[in-house]
Amino acid sequence: MNADQRLSDAGEIQARCDAIDWTLISRELSAQGSAVFLGLLTPDECDAMAALYRQRQLFRKRVVMGRHGFGRGEYQYFHYPLPTLTQTLRTLLYPGLAGIANNWHEKLGITIRYPSEHADFLTRCRDAGQQKATPLLLAYGEGDHCCLHQDLYGEHVFPLQVVILLSEPGRDFEGGEFLLTEQRSQMASRAEVVPLRQGDAIAFAVNQRPVRGARGYARAAMRHGVSRLHRGERYTAGIIFHDAQS
To answer: Which one, of 222, 224, 214, 208, lies nearest residue 104 by Cα?
Structure first.
């Protein structure tokens, strides 16, 4: 039995996703550009998902960050078909996030709207030549870090993404905090460290989010990264909802 087969069945994941308070998530995302899903995955699910990193046949591409100036560490993009848990989370989390994304676009005067089902959005991506899977696993060791960045892969970019911490702070690693920065027009950048435990997930703006100003809503640019790891190993899963250019 491989690691993916040891994961909880889709019904358990469905129940957890159904229990998400999307009103609260929407409020937190609108207020600060991020929101945390506490205990989205169990420790066993996290361990099994992290173990997939060693199964090279599941991935289409491996990136060593230091070779590209991205930081230090590495990550791998899954290829289709995605592992069961990754696919399930991508499908179940999308509808709630799509409603928030549409609300953001309305505030910013952007005409693009997102369909309620993820499969329909992926059809839009495929029609534009974006056919490569973007969900990924990331691995960090002592001294590794990830520079602040945005995950933009083509014309069709879904405004929100999710990262799940698969390792336990203090036990598996020290350091390696999740970082967010926000840049508003004519203002200094705002930085935030978001504390996460194993199984927690964070949803955040991929590129920009609406912020209310004196003349209505304006766009604030968001970036994310990971601080330097002082000890141990840290694994995370990235759920990106748009696909990449072929």
So the answer is: 208
pLDDT of residue 8: 57
Tell me the two tokens of residue 12.
């358990």
Q: Rounded to whole angstroms, how far apart are CA atoms 205 and 101?
A: 9
On the CB side of 139, how many CA atoms lie within 13 Å of its CA? 14
Nearest residue to 142 via CA among 203, 200, 72: 72
169 DSSP assignment: B
pLDDT tens digits for range 97-113: 999 999 999 999 999 99
What is the average pLDDT across 113-127?
97
The residue to which tokens 């929100």 are assigned: 160
Q: Phi first, then psi: what are they for 234, rounded to 5°? A: -130, 125
Dist. CA 19–CA 37, nearest whole Å: 10
Predicted TM-score (pTM) of the model is: 0.93
Measure the CA dihedral 51/55/61/63, to 10°.
Answer: 50
Per DSSP, the residues of 10-60 read HHHHHHHHHT--HHHHHHHHHHHSEEEETT-S-HHHHHHHHHGGG-GGGEE
Q: Which residues, 6+ apart, have CB-to-CB distance to 213 below 8 Å?
A: none
Confidence of residue 1 (pLDDT cuts 50, 70, 90): very low
Taking each helix axis from N to C end, the angle separating 84-108 and 10-18, rounded to the nearest 10 degrees, works out to 20
